[in-house]
């Protein structure tokens, strides 16, 4: 799943977009409200990114009702 991914979230009144870049060495998550999170692309880094994404989506964006992911190579 290497590449660049845009994650769009919407509900009845608002929308927001974040980005995820997966490269050979790093996994980068960018949110204009929160900044950038970078972990190494290894087992430990992927587990840390999984936890960070869970925290971000659960605490910041739980009111969104629809999510779509676009992939860019």
Q: How would you describe this structure to a colleague?
A:
By secondary structure, this protein is an alpha+beta fold. The protein has one domain (about 5-65). The protein has one helix spanning about 45-60; strands at about 5-10, 15-20, 25-30, 35-40, 65-70. The protein has a five-stranded antiparallel β-sheet with strand order 4-3-2-1-5, with helices on one face. A hairpin with a 4-residue loop joins strand 1 and strand 2. It is globular and about 40 Å long. It starts with a strand and ends with a strand. The mean pLDDT is about 90.
Task: Give the structure's gist in a few sentences.
With 73 residues, the chain is α+β, with helices and mostly antiparallel strands. It is built from 1 helix and 5 strands. The mean pLDDT is 92.
Averaging pLDDT over every residue, what do you get?
92
Helix content: 10-25%
Tell me the series of helices and strands, N- to C-terminal: EEEEHE
Beta-strand percent range: over 45%
The domain tally reads 1
Largest sheet: 5 strands, antiparallel
Supply Rg.
Answer: 12 Å
Strand order of the largest sheet: 4-3-2-1-5
Distance between the termini: 10 Å
Compute the number of helices: 1
Derived from helix and strand composition plus strand pairing, the structural class reads: alpha+beta
Low-confidence stretches: none
Per the principal axes of the C-alpha atoms, what is the gross shape? globular
According to DSSP, the number of beta strands is 5
């Amino acid at each position: 799943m290497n590449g660049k991914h845009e994650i769009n979230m919407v509900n009845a009144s608002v929308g927001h977009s974040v980005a995820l870049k997966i490269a050979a060495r790093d996994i980068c998550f960018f949110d204009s409200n929160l900044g950038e999170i970078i972990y190494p692309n290894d087992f430990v880094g992927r587990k840390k990114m999984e936890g960070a994404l869970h925290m971000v989506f659960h605490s910041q964006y739980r009111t969104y009702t629809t999510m779509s992911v676009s992939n860019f190579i």
